[in-house]
Amino acid sequence: MKPRKTDPEKTYDNEQELPLQLRERKCIMAKQYLMAIDAGTGSVRAVLFDTDGNQISCVQREWEHHEDPRFPGSMDFDWVHNWELACECTKGVLSETGIAPEQIAAVSTTCMREGIVLYDKDGNEIWACANVDARSTDEVGKLISMNPELEKEIYLQSGETYALGALPRLLWVKDKMPEVYEKIAAVGMFNDWLILKLTGVEAVEPSNGSTTGIFDLRSRSWDASIAKRCGLRDDIFPPVIESGEVIAKINAKGAADTGLAEGTPVVVGGGDCQLGTIGVGSTLPNQAAVFGGSFWQYEFNTDSGATDPLCRVRVNCHAVPGLWQYEALAFKPGLVMRWFRDGFCQLEKEISKKTGEDVYDLMNREAEKIPAGCYGMMCAFSDVMNFISWKHASPTFTNFELDPEKFNRYTFYRAILENTALLVKGHMDLVREATGNMPQEVIFAGGASKSPLWSQILADVLGMPVKVPVVKEATALGAAIIAGYGVGIYKSIEEGAARTVRFDRTFEPDMKNHAVYEEMYPIWRKVYAAQLELVNEGLTKPMWIAPGL
Asked: Does the residue 12 lie in any domain?
């Protein structure tokens, strides 16, 4: 039977009289969505969610940051091409879903932190670098020689050192590109750059702005005197607007570029880790999350903007107004895993090709048979963070015997998993020493959380429950929650997280294994210190060292 055609000229007294086709279309058109645009280190993506936190679509484009051959370590950001890629993502989501642009209730943005964009007086980009830019080693040395105590003074106020902040990069522009430096009218971050392209309005928000090292944490705003003390201009800082506020609406050009509807509210977002914590439900003081990827971050929420007197751990503004975050970074755990997989797991890779089973799952199955503590073997890769003097030992496995039954590639593999979990314990202790507080449980997200073995080892090492969320795009979901809060869909950021964040599994600690790791941890710290001393003596090469050290 053919469907009955509807009469477009006919009017109806109530909704129940509408033909089924029209009622269904009206229901679909009434549904609202939230879009996050995420400018990551390796890619840009547009992710669409419904208001219950279900991911509807994600379109991603990879991008690259090219080194200027004149300046080793540089990573320039191509704002022309990369904006085109961002627009491909937004248009791709609309095309893929068939959702009308008008159904998107709000848009928010997030990005890799530390990358900066410089603008001229007309709001045009004149210089930009990605977060992985490492060209300013000379400038770090210059700052240290100028005043050896200045870095500590800046940290105590801003929560940042020279290792990741914008100060050495701005000084580099002043020294190496004075013609660009003279034209600077404003400095911003990449999430703010996306908003500028959408709306024509320029502002910075605290969660990412504070990573520049030119913020006063307590006031959650620029402190231009910090720049002045470093020999930099103090008149290049745009307004600050808190995350969750509607900054503007998409203008005609933004709509034409992206395919989004002109007039769509744009809500101020935040840095990737801060929005990631919202996207896994960590929105209150004393809650904590661990994000496991190429790098691992331990994020602890606090209602105080106080810093660590010993300058060991990073402190940022949270994207939740009135909260701050202690952040401890572990370098390269995910990259270490990839190295081990590609260098030593050829057999599992061949099996994977035949069966379709993931290489890591094959390795996990065998590593589960290895007892906690790996028969006393341990390794050294990333160290517990020391922000003011940040370096890592040369990669090392130690304390193994020439017994292939006990010490084989599965033992070495498990040792890497345990090493990273011990790092998290070290970071948790570090933050407890600085704040006096510890979480009761930890939320574990990111690619590493897909491993049940790694999740269980983390719970065993910490001696507390580890909760793994369902969501795979935590940062984008956090941006969507912020967007929904900004336009009143959620009464608060906390309510938005409670409505949208769901958990897949909770790993309870095995207290027998926990006892093994409690005994192992202080030994591991001493072994690592000895390996680091070899680096200090110039006998081995560090896995990573901060600029200027």
From this structure: no
